[in-house]
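PROTEIN SPECIFICATION:
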Amino acid sequence: MSRKHSVVLILLIISITLGAVDTYIQEVYRKMYLSDYTGALEQVEKALKKEPLNIEVLELKAYVFFQMEKYDKALIWIEQAIAQDSTKISAAMLKGSIYDLQNKNKKAIAVYDKILAINFDNDTVWEMKAVSLEGMEKYEDAIKSIDKAIQFNPEKPEYLYTKARILEKTGKKAEARKLREEAKKIEIRM
């Protein structure tokens, strides 16, 4: 599963909303599932007319732009969501992911560090930080970060694959091979 798809799944799970705009939100998810992003944006706009400050709807609009790879527009809307609630972890995670995709790794790491300051055991964010550090070729720091992710969720094979990829870049091919074998064993058990 790609990093972008992992973020998608996390945000879908976290961002389900109940209330006056629920029907529109359900329709947004349906249209996004069909890759009808224009239709999804139309539904988001309807929801925003009903509840213009609804953080989930603001975040969802950012997410639709994220899926359309319109990262600058996504950042505008995710900032509005964060302005409503600066502790909203899923919004911050999306912001960090956008920075990563724009190769703004330092900004992404700053976002991930803010999340970890309030939610230290968030294994997903530790992995996201590791990937950002890897992108900056800070492999030792990336290994420390992915080790935290593994510490908090040792049964997630993706983390072992991430660590193996980083280790290979440092020349530790035998250790990377062992991690891939361990990851495959976990996948079989699942």
User: Anything to note?
Assistant: DSSP finds eleven helices and no strands in the chain.
